[in-house]
């Protein structure tokens, strides 16, 4: 039986509510509500305006209600969390992962635990913002001392909608607090950051029903008989679930604010090579592992445009100019941590170029060209290394998310890798969110036929590799990439 479903998909700069219809040979999605997600800087640091986000979700759900959805699922970015006291009250606004308070504490925790030992325990790439380091930075704070429960963003919103707590496992796998082998919370890692493991709620798998809307929520939205279903609540896990794969030999790049590039594997790889190359083993749907690396992504471009005071209407013109700018003049390693915080991106890129004896991008077109070529090189490096380390072959690269609209980036990723890139869907995260709900509500037994359905129902764009591969090889070497 086809199902009518609602996906709430929260990104770092905007949130969306979509309604969809998913059946064995039917997959349609419509956006019913979109809102800005603007972080707020307070004396205590950079925070998410979580009450405003919740308010917008309620608005979107009220718009979705007339379609009569069976189920609602929420996905969001990873690692950030809210703390609840014993009565369920939120203790302060969640911090944004781009807040800089974890910078030094992260390195200290890793040194104390031992980098290799920590990787054996949690299989996670080092990112200074991983939940465990945020918790270490909050040690001794009134909020943490008074907390009874720690909830990641989608779980917090699920709690507000239903009154039920839990920790969805794909997102829990990004915290650093989940054991990569047992897939249960790790008391050892919790102890290492001074976290009482009782704060960590019971794990739930994607597809588990969280509950019904609280009476107040039902009244506000009109969603009385709809269940709230746990999806792959980490947005990247949903995006990977939404990859329109038709065979097994694919790599993916989930490309938006971040580029998350890697492979879907049946089990984690926690070898020394994987650790040294900073690959993460996050959980996917149906027990899979997302073996991938974070690359700074279109953030480099978004933050440059913000600095220049340009809006998205100016993007096409900028890309046209970038296509005409001379190739491979200046390149940056798009995983360099200096690019993580908000701020003047063109200035930081210029500083990187000066330090590495490259020309400072002469104008905006040159800078955009530098960013996009560097990202293509980042995609290439991550996918090549992932394939080598996991001993897998990759024949097709699926590039999903907002980046799929960027024809230059898609073509250059294909050229740099020497592999075809299949671009789309742009809304893979919402698609994946709905596919998991569809599976949970009986549309299919596993993901494979649903992914084929994405392939059949979406306009995908295929980019064949061409151009001078040798030029990409030497460009990669210039910034120390594979
Ligand atoms: C992408 C993403 C990444 C995660 C980063 C921070 O939106 O979820 O997977 O590493 O945001 O949470």
UniProtKB/TrEMBL annotation:
Domain Carbohydrate kinase FGGY N-terminal, residue spans: 7-242
Cross-referenced InterPro entries: ATPase_NBD (IPR043129), FGGY_C (IPR018485), FGGY_Carb_Kinase (IPR050406), FGGY_N (IPR018484), Rhamnulokinase (IPR013449)
Superkingdom per UniProt: Bacteria
UniProt cross-references to SUPFAM superfamilies, sorted A to Z: Actin-like ATPase domain
One Pfam family from the record: FGGY_C
Record-annotated Carbohydrate kinase FGGY C-terminal domain positions: 252-440
Keyword set includes RNA-binding: no
Keywords tagged on the record: ATP-binding, Carbohydrate metabolism, Kinase, Nucleotide-binding, Rhamnose metabolism, Transferase, Xylose metabolism
Cross-referenced Gene3D superfamilies: 3.30.420.40
Family per similarity comment: Belongs to the FGGY kinase family.
PANTHER family: SUGAR KINASE, XYLULOSE KINASE
UniProt protein name: Rhamnulokinase family protein
The organism of origin for this protein: Salinactinospora qingdaonensis
């Amino acid at each position: 039986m086809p199902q009518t479903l609602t996906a709430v998909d929260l990104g770092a700069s905007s949130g969306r509510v979509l309604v969809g219809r998913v059946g064995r040979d039917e997959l349609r999605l419509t956006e019913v509500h979109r809102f800005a997600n603007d972080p707020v800087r307070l004396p205590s640091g950079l925070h998410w305006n979580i009450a405003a986000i919740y308010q917008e979700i309620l608005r979107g759900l009220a718009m979705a209600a007339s379609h009569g959805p069976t189920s609602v699922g929420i996905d969001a970015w990873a690692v950030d969390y809210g703390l609840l006291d014993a009565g369920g009250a939120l203790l302060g606004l969640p911090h944004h992962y781009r807040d800089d308070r974890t910078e030094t504490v992260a390195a200290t925790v890793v040194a104390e635990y031992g980098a290799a030992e920590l990787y054996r325990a949690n299989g996670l790439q080092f990112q200074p913002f991983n939940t465990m380091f945020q918790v270490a930075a909050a040690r001794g704070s009134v909020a943490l001392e008074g907390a009874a429960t720690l909830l990641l963003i989608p779980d917090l919103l699920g709690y507000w909608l239903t009154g039920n707590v839990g920790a969805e496992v794909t997102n829990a796998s990004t915290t650093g607090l989940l054991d990569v082998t047992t897939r249960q919370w790790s008391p050892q890692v919790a102890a290492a950051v001074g976290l009482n493991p009782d704060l960590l709620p019971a794990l739930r798998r994607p597809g588990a029903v969280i509950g019904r809307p609280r009476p107040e929520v039902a009244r506000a939205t009109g969603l009385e008989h709809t269940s709230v279903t746990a999806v792959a609540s980490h947005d990247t896990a949903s995006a990977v679930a939404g990859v329109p794969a038709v065979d097994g030999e694919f790599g993916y790049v989930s490309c938006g604010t971040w580029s998350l590039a890697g492979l879907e594997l049946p089990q984690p790889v926690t070898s020394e090579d994987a650790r040294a190359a900073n690959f993460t083993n996050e959980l996917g749907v149906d027990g899979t592992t997302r073996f991938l690396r974070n690359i700074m992504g279109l953030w480099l471009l978004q933050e440059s445009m913000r600095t220049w005071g340009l809006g998205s209407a100016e993007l096409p013109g900028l890309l046209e100019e970038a296509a005409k700018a001379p190739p491979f003049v200046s390149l940056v390693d798009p995983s360099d941590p200096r690019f993580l915080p908000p701020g003047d991106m063109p200035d930081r890129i210029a500083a990187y170029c000066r330090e590495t004896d490259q020309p400072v991008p002469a104008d905006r077109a040159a800078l955009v060209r530098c960013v996009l070529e560097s990202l293509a090189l980042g995609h290439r490096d991550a996918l090549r290394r992932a394939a080598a380390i996991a001993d897998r072959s990759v024949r097709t690269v699926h590039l999903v998310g907002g980046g799929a609209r960027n024809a230059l980036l898609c073509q250059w990723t294909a050229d740099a890798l020497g592999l075809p890139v299949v671009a789309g869907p742009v809304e893979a995260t919402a698609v994946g969110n709905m596919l998991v709900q569809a599976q949970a509500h009986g549309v299919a037994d596993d993901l494979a036929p649903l992914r084929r359905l994405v392939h059949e129902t979406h306009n995908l764009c295929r980019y064949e590799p061409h151009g001078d591969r040798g030029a990409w090889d030497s460009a990669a070497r210039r910034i120390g990439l594979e």
